[in-house]
Amino acid sequence: MRFLRYFWTKIATKLKTLLDRHQLHITLQRLAHQLVENHLDFSETAIIGLQPRGVYFSDRIISILKDITGNNDIVYGRLDFTFYRDDLHKDKGLQAPDRTDINFEIEGKRVVLLDDVLHTGRTTRAAMDALLDFGRPREVELMTLIDRRFSRELPIQPDYTGLSVDTLFEQKVKVLWKEKDGKDEVVLL
């Protein structure tokens, strides 16, 4: 029992809150308003959340967009890109894909990809490869809640960013969502 208390004390002292619940709410509101400024009525736009954790982010953004615009017909989907990853077979065992839910035409649309954390850029590259199997969008934009800007391995930059953080490569940024983790918070491990 003492070991567990010691272990959790050590873990708790190594966590740094980057965004608390209130700050996360404000950031999500700002990002949604930026989308409204650039896409107006969303008639030519499709919002796509990247599986797995970008979906929680995109669900929140879609909800806020509907509140702001009153438009309940915003085109929204979810994309799994598991089999497009370049590290698919690297020491991760069997990969179980999530569900892709894109039941609309993306040909000629402005597509906004949403993911919670942008780190090396490899996730975004894999997602764009998977997206092209559904058609050729007119434009692709990227929205990330957290941009770990100095750890990029590929020349990918977000169009919309909630928070840019400077981290060491071995550090981890974890976005906690109430729906999945029981609370809303962004922490640095």
Automatic annotation (TrEMBL):
GO terms for molecular function: glycosyltransferase activity. It comes from the Bacteria. Pfam families: Pribosyltran (PF00156). Keywords: Glycosyltransferase, Transferase. Residues 16-171 form the Phosphoribosyltransferase domain. InterPro entries: PRTase-like (IPR029057), PRTase_dom (IPR000836), PyrR_bifunctional (IPR050137). This is Bifunctional pyr operon transcriptional regulator/uracil phosphoribosyltransferase PyrR. It comes from Rurimicrobium arvi.
